[in-house]
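Why do we care about 3D structure at all? Because function follows from shape, and shape follows, mostly, from sequence. That is the central idea of this module. The next example makes it concrete: a single protein chain, its amino acid sequence, and then its structure expressed as tokens.
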Amino acid sequence: MGINVDKGADGIATVTVDYPPVNAIPSAGWFELGEQILAAGRDPDVHVVILRAEGRGFNAGVDIKEMQDFEGFDHLLAANRGCYVAFNAVYECAVPVIAAVNGFCVGGGIGLVGNADCIVASDDAVFGLPEVDRGALGAATHLARMVPPHMMRTLYFTSRNVTAQQLHSWGTVYDVVPRDQLDAAARDLAETIAAKDTRVIRAAKEAINHIDPIDVKSSYRMEQGFTFELNLAGVADEHRDEFVKTGTNLDKRVKRSERTGENK
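And the structure:
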């Protein structure tokens, strides 16, 4: 359980996220994930990193229950900072990072995958940002790297998901395979990259980052600023409390109250 790293003699480092039941990562886990990815990139014997997950899905974002179990903003700030560190680690890792996505990839998972260099996915994988349903913002920056501009806005405002097949048709996902073939597909791609001259690949990664049209670090921090505003206003707590208590979204409860005349 936690963040596990396996470095093979073939130049492939596999970083595995394992936080059952749904891989909702606690704040400390985000920091550790970032540290492990950067450390792998610093290792001269590592030519490529595979980022994968155990269990039902790739990532369910931050651990909302952790934030709601404590008073004040310390855990919120830690979770947001941890996400920033982990997302940035994927982007700044000195070697290419391949995201192998199984099942669901939502919330913070989009920040990881959107910053990855290559994506392979299982045929049951779905991707989405339920942030507005949790009274928060974030990772629109990374979703914008995965889908067309107006689709990003539609998915963000509706909290709807997009499938691996759709992302493949848009050129975002490199390959879609049955779940039991996902690890093999990721390794096949990793072996191709690892066989290249790592000096050239490392230079290519840095060069591509420099010509990226989106400054993913500053734009994500801008999004986080609005999240902090929503928290200071008490809006985010209302949404998170509802989700933790009932597993439903606050907007659905409000709509139901409006229809029936019940108190909110």
